Amino acid sequence: MFGIGMPELVLILIIGLVVFGPGKLPEVGKAIGKSLNEFKKATSGITGSDEQVNVTKVETKAEPTKSETVKSEPTKPEVK
């Protein structure tokens, strides 16, 4: 995937254990998992999944009726 093997993964976990401590590490992992899940749901809506996309109806104004239009008189040509 990203070229992360077992030694790199162990190193990342050890650094995380040192930085966050053994008590906070499960909470951090849970928060990262929730964030990735929400990100996946949001991006699936962008890619065009019919389940996630909410289509709203856009109302357009109809053409004016004859009674709403203003009738203009034809202009008369000027006579010189």
Largest sheet data: none
Class computed from helices, strands and strand pairing: mainly alpha
Provide the gyration radius in Å. Answer: 32 Å
- By DSSP, the count of extended strands is 0
Overall pLDDT level = 75
Could you tell me the strand content as a percent range?
A: under 5%
Which residues form runs of ≥5 with pLDDT under 50? none
What kind of assembly state do the chains in view correspond to? single chain
What does it look like?
This protein has one helix and no strands. The longest helix has 41 residues, at 6-46. The protein has 80 residues and is mainly alpha-helical.
Draw up the topology in text.
Blueprint: H1 6-46
Spell out the key features of this protein.
80 residues; mainly alpha; rod-shaped
Gist?
This protein is mainly alpha-helical and 80 residues long. Helices cover 51% and strands 0% of the residues.
